[in-house]
Amino acid sequence: MGRLVGRVALVTGASRGVGKGIALGLGEQGATVYVTGRTEVGGSPTTPLDGAVQETAEEVTALGGRGVAIACDHRDDEQTRQAVARVVAETRRLDVLVNNVWGGYEYFWDGTEFWLEAGFWTAPIDRWDSMFQAGVRAHYVTSVVAASTMVAQGSGLIVNVSSDAAGKDDAGVSYGVAKAATDRMVACMAHELREHGVTAVSLYPGLVRTESVLRAAEYFDLSDSESPQYVGRAIAALAADPEVMRHTGQVVRTSELGQEYGFTDIDAPSGS
Fold it and tell me: How far out from the chain centre does Cα 225 lie?
């Protein structure tokens, strides 16, 4: 039996990529996983990449959890409120919130020749807006709406998917500042949530083999990369840890959590 049977999770931005992998990692431990995304089966695709929120939910269920799809654009606060309200109305609890949704990646598929940009002053200003509205703000708003339920039940885990770009000067101004803001948000939220038994962490994955990365595989060294589901296993391990509060307010890395909790990637050699 999975370690998260009876637990309820909400994973934002889970039609594909890291978000989908997180949902699967929670699902294989038996959790009920609500997944949000803008791409629906039969609807207009939001990117040229495969994946829809209903497909993710079905795969969660196939792995032994219970997947529930919610179409949601987290740039719209009301849609966010309705998504969280649905989770709470149907389950009367919320144990894990994973803020994964992000914006500002549109240049990977909208034809923008971003590699020609010679500095932040040559990049479109709306890239900053996308990262902060669909990323930082969306993480904040979803946390605000979810926190009241976690505080009332006296437990919960909030994970903001972040990046080591937060501490790098060469990560790009918009991206680096947005990820630094995400990390600082977690530290401040953790301070206020600690007395209520709710943990908040920033998670740094390594290089993840998402659909976008595999599409441009010739530009990456994938020898030390992670599957999206490995990121999910990291969060599942945190969610199952009765002493997870020791991590609150901190940055945690998937590779280090793998060593601490003893989980491996889906394609790891047997016995590793």
Answer: 17
Give the whole-angstrom CA distance, residue 57 versus residue 35: 7
Strands 66-71 and 32-37: parallel
- Locate the DSSP E strands across 89-240: 96-99, 156-161, 198-204
- How many Cα atoms are found within 13 Å in the side-chain-facing hemisphere of 199? 24
Contact 240/29 with Cβ under 8 angstroms? yes
Tell me if the pTM is above 0.85. Answer: yes
Structure tokens at 123: 């990049």
- Is 261 an active-site residue? no
Q: Is the four-CA dihedral 232, 234, 237, 239 of positive or negative sign?
A: negative
Task: Give the range among 55-69, 120-134, 182-196 with minimum mean pLDDT.
Answer: 120-134
Give residue-wise pLDDT tens across range 18-30.
999 999 999 999 9
The CATH topology of domain 8-261 is Rossmann fold (3.40.50)
**Structural domain boundaries of the chain?**
8-261
pLDDT band at 71 (very low <50, low <70, confident <90, very high): very high
- Mean pLDDT across 208-228: 83
Helix, strand, coil content of the chain in percent (nearest 5): 50, 15, 35
Backbone dihedral angles phi then psi of residue 103, each to the nearest 5 degrees: -130, 175
End-to-end CA distance of the chain: 22
Q: Which of 105, 107, 175, 230 is catalytic?
A: 175
Two structure tokens written together for 66: 């219970």
Calculate the average pLDDT of the chain: 91
